[in-house]
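Quick check before the chapter quiz. The format below is the same one you will see on the exam, so make sure you can read both the input and the output lines.
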Amino acid sequence: MKLSVQSHNSIVSAIQKALERYSGKEGMSVVTDIHLLPSFETGELKILNDDDEELACIVVNEWVEAMPEGFYASVEVALKKVLNQLRETGYLNALNILKPYSFVLLDGTKETVAELLLVDDEETLFLNDELLKGLDEELNAFLKDLLEK
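Here is the expected output.
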């Protein structure tokens, strides 16, 4: 599901509005995750902090009455694009939030669907699918080798 430019800009604005409280100069805020909770029934995107306090809420027209099949996968792609855009502009690094912190996609039961973005200092290695490819097999072979000895 492709987002219109208007919906994309609305999501950017909502995230910026949600994070406004963390842009002040008065010390670091202790936040470990920012939760993004989309709904395929209402089209709402709620942005929550660790205490489930709502920081912002918008309606994304393309998500209203969307089909549940594949909804979170397509939302994940769209939200990653928005968050990467905010990261590239330096907006996320300017916040007074202790690093590392994450943006996490939640489903309707508030279970984690995906980690959308991990914000940390420059020297941190970000894990991605390409880096982790084959890791399970390597770890299983290593463990099997250890147990046989």
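If your answer matched, good. The chain has a mean pLDDT of 85.
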